[in-house]
Amino acid sequence: MQAIRHLLAQRGGYQSLLYKSPTFLLILLTLITGCALPFGGPLTPEDQVAVVTTDRGIFVIEFYPDAAPVAVDNFIKLINQKFYDGLTFHRIIEGFVAQGGCPEGDGTGGPGWTITDEYTNPNQRPHLRGTVAMARTPAPNSSGSQFYICFKPQPSLDGDYTTFGGVIQGMDVVDRLEIGDVMTKIRLEAKSKYVKATAE
Asked: For the whole model, what pTM was predicted?
């Protein structure tokens, strides 16, 4: 900043500089703004959440990359591609799960690829209320884009389906979902906007 002040003084002050060199002002603002930005680059999956906008309202999903790194990366990839925008929840079973993410709208579709099952990962989380997991066919490694959210704990699913996240806000919205409700959009946002930091 001292060098910038020196340069401004040589140019005859701020007003003269603004009048004579708007390009320099743009560079100056870029430098100042850049100095204020935090270092560290893009947010990691641990630092992000998926904000799901539906007909019923908004709910927020946190990720468990330690439990299912492949599933988390796949979900984030699909969100960035806006794959889920406009898709529906095609399966709702009261007291069990809400399922969506099928481009065909009937549970038969996917993104055009499948991912590896991770339910044998020792860091896998149990199926609790709000748990988000990958749906699949009876065939191994058949998950793609479809996911489900548990209305209640489902211990019978543990060890058979990959859990990769959990609803941290808006579970009341999930409770109100009905078959055919649309995911208007899913967007990634900073987790810090939804979870307050705790002192260690």
From this structure: 0.78
